[in-house]
Amino acid sequence: MMATAKLSILGSDYIGAFSLANDSFSLVCKSSTKGEHSAMVRNLEVPVHDFTVNGSDLIGIYAACNSHSLILPSATYASEAKAIKKQLDDVNVAVFDTDLNALGNNILANDRRAIINPNYSSKEAKKIADIMDVEVVKMGVGGFETVGANNLLTNSGIVLNNRVTEEEEALLKELFKSVSQSTANLGALSIGLCAIANSKGLLVGRATTGHELVSMSEGLGF
Fold it and tell me: What is the biggest distance separating any 2 CA atoms in the chain, rounded to whole angstroms?
């Protein structure tokens, strides 16, 4: 049975701004509490590691990951990259130099595919594909180029913001096992900033309604 729960981090319901998750590990900002760590471990069933990017707690905005890779912006301090590489010794941790450096906002990835901001160049798209070892698709979703901020993806399925077009949804249904549309945090379209998930669990901001939680769970195959 996959777990679902509500959580706030640093008093915010936008928990996806402060954390990341996949089927191998999760990351949370250094300012987070032991209780927040425990909720992540309990519901996602993977180890949790503290992290900052460029001294910022907004790691979900700046970093992107899947089970075997972590991609960091060039603003990441060398000491931060070194520390997380030591903790994730079997993960490909790479620094990516790009103007679209809010990688978590612009990259939506699981272990097989990544949807990325269409403004990334072909060269940048290839770099992302190589680092994350995935097939890359450049596209916006529902009028948003920030695909990571506005959608949620795991190895089990995808939740799309509810402005997605019929054409976009049809394409994404071909790429992913399970698809649903939703909002989070009482109507927010920034689903990826409101929630984190893997194949074992889903954590959402406390303002998320029961209806939104059901819609999100359906897309993720829960």
Answer: 45
